[in-house]
Each structure stands twice: as structure tokens, then as C-alpha cells.
């Protein structure tokens, strides 16, 4: 499958750091997403077999849907594409607000990126392709940011050089220790929560599956305050030991999108046992994308 990502998201919580405890200041629900995020009808920077729609087109085609406490972003799952025409209709949205030091709690997640990439950094909170678990959390930066090979985390470090110009932009990644952190295992478990905390001393990422007994109550209940000190050991810890967080990470936007094939998924499509040609698969199998969508109930901002 290609980006098999069926995500039912009761909440997406963003907090601006002000110590380790943050208070709810804003709550974006349903159609609020249409005014607080911008649809980006751009060419996919990673060359996916996708056609990102404007908000007006996406609403008209019901690719973007907002009603009550539901906000859904999906892909066209009915059209067989012409090989010579544009890619599969889908959307990419970017928050109008930018965040520096903050906490984001999502169900399941998104990613963040700054202007003038990679100089303001990129934090991938959920990253994976072709339905292969587990999830990895990855930083992509300008040169001069590396991670120690051993940190206080439960996940496995897969790369220590965060420089986007090295290693084909692999970035510095940490693989989650839980198989239900992505794809079929994630969906089968009913989803889960991702949380990312960014301060000037570290970036940390946590994951809790829906039925995990250790989900912090503030995360689970969308509490009016959250205290990251009580969240236990993160699966990914990116300390500032050899990476000045202030100079490598600027204001970032939250980005949520759905793309197919392209630089990463397309290149590993065959080796991951998905078939011989990712683009043809996307062109010819619209129904494969019925279960590839984002579904948010709310986005709460904490400061
Ligand atoms: C649009 O999508 C929503 C969410 O999937 C669905 O409930 C609704 O029936 C769709 N509307 C139309 C006109 O297809
Ligand atoms: C946050 O949690 C830590 C660890 O339990 C505790 O020491 C601290 O007092 C809490 N902060 C607030 C403001 O409640
Ligand atoms: C980190 O970068 C900031 C911004 O460029 C700079 O002001 C600060 O002195 C740097 N810190 C260290 C320890 O080099
Ligand atoms: C979102 O877009 C980025 C490129 O800007 C891509 O690397 C990533 O895989 C996309 N995410 C999804 C879930 O399609």
C-alpha cells in the first residue's frame, strides 16, 4: 500500500513552552481548520504522484470535508488516472501560525517545517511509507547538527547526522520501539497519540497506543493543562549536546498532507514488497486510497 494512513484524530494539541506546564489557549474544531490552515496547491517537493488542490477545489470535490467536530482530508478514491495526466487529487495544509519552542500532541500526528528549508529545521513526528512499521521521528537541519549515538530514549537511533545535505537527506532518525506506532498496527490498535516537545535544550517525541495503560491523563483527556514532566521517557530524544537548537530551528509551521510515491516511498516501493511500479499502482487503483485519510476532531493550542 502507499501511505496507508487511516487516521482518526480526536484531537491535535499544540502548546507553546512556558516551563513544563502549558495551558489551553485555543481550540480549533471542524471548519475552523479552513481559516487557521492554508491549502497549498503546490507541486509536491518530494515529487509524489499527487495533485494538491486549492481549498475551493478540495471542498467542491469533497477531498476536504468539514462539519461539526469533524475535519477530514482524503485522496480521490474513484478516478483511474491517465499516465500522462496529473497525479491523484489530495491536499496539503499548513498552519497560518508558526511555532518556536512548543509542544504538539496529535492523534496521530503531522510534521513541522520552517521557511527557507532546511535553515529553520524540520521535525517529522510521524514518518513512514508503504505501510511499513514502526514509525520513525526525524530531524532535518542545516549543517552542524549531530546527535549522540546514545540518549535517554526507548527507541533506536538510526542516524546521527541531521544535515539535510548529507546521506540523501536521511536526517537523524529514531525508530519507535512499538510496532503499533504506524500503518496497519497503528490503525488496528485504534490509533494513538504522538507528542512532540521542542525547547532550546532538546526535541522529544512520545508515542502512546490507544489502549496503552501509560497514556498520561492530560494527553488522553485533552486536559486544560499538560505537564510534560509526567510523560516518562520519550521514544526519541534529540538533545542539544552537538546541535544548537536556537540556530538550527526557527519558527515552524504545522503541515498535514498526503502524498504518494515520490522520492522516498516510490524508491522503496518494490523492495518493501508492494509491487513493481508505484506510479502505475497509484494511477490504476483508486480504491486503494479509500482508507488513506486524516480525520481530526480538534486542534488545541496550549501556551
Ligand atoms: C463528503 O465526505 C464526508 C466525509 O467522508 C461524507 O460524510 C459525505 O457524505 C461526503 N459528501 C458527499 C456529497 O459525498
Ligand atoms: C509538573 O510535574 C512535575 C513532575 O511530577 C512536578 O514536579 C511539577 O510540580 C509539575 N508542575 C506543575 C506546574 O504542576
Ligand atoms: C546558539 O545559537 C544562537 C543563535 O545563533 C546563539 O546566540 C548562541 O550563542 C548559540 N549558543 C551556543 C552555545 O553556541
Ligand atoms: C508530506 O509531504 C512531504 C514532502 O513535503 C513528504 O515527505 C511526506 O511523505 C508527506 N507525508 C504524507 C503523509 O504523505
Write the layout of secondary structure elements.
Blueprint (H helix, E strand, L loop, with lengths): L5 E4 L2 E5 L4 E9 L2 H5 E3 L10 E3 L2 H6 L3 E4 L2 E4 L14 E3 L1 E4 L6 E5 L4 E4 L7 E6 L8 E5 L15 E2 L14 E4 L7 H6 L3 E7 L3 E8 L7 H4 L4 E3 L8 E4 L5 H4 L3 E6 L4 H7 L9 H7 L8 E4 L1 E5 L1
Parallel strand pairs: 1-21, 2-22, 5-8
Antiparallel strand pairs: 2-10, 3-18, 3-22, 4-9, 6-7, 7-21, 9-20, 10-16, 11-12, 11-20, 12-13, 13-15, 14-15, 16-17, 17-19
The structure holds 2-acetamido-2-deoxy-beta-D-glucopyranose (NAG) (4 copies).
Protein name: GH16 domain-containing protein
Organism: Clathrus columnatus
Keywords: Signal
Task: Describe the protein's architecture and organization.
There is one protein chain. With 303 residues, the chain is mostly beta strands. The chain has one domain: Jelly Rolls (Sandwich), CATH 2.60.120.200. 13% of the residues lie in helices and 34% in strands. The protein has seven helices and 22 strands. It has helices spanning 32-36, 55-60, 183-188, 217-220, 245-248, 262-268, 278-284; strands at residues 6-9, 12-16, 21-29, 37-39, 50-52, 64-67, 70-73, 88-90, 92-95, 102-106, 111-114, 122-127, 136-140, 156-157, 172-175, 192-198, 202-209, 225-227, 236-239, 252-257, 293-296, 298-302. The protein has an eight-stranded mixed sheet. Strands 4-9-20-11-12-13-15-14 form an eight-stranded antiparallel sheet. A hairpin with a 3-residue loop joins strand 16 and strand 17 (202-209). The protein is globular, with a radius of gyration of 18 Å. The structure holds 2-acetamido-2-deoxy-beta-D-glucopyranose (4 copies). The site of one 2-acetamido-2-deoxy-beta-D-glucopyranose has 3 residues, from helix 5.
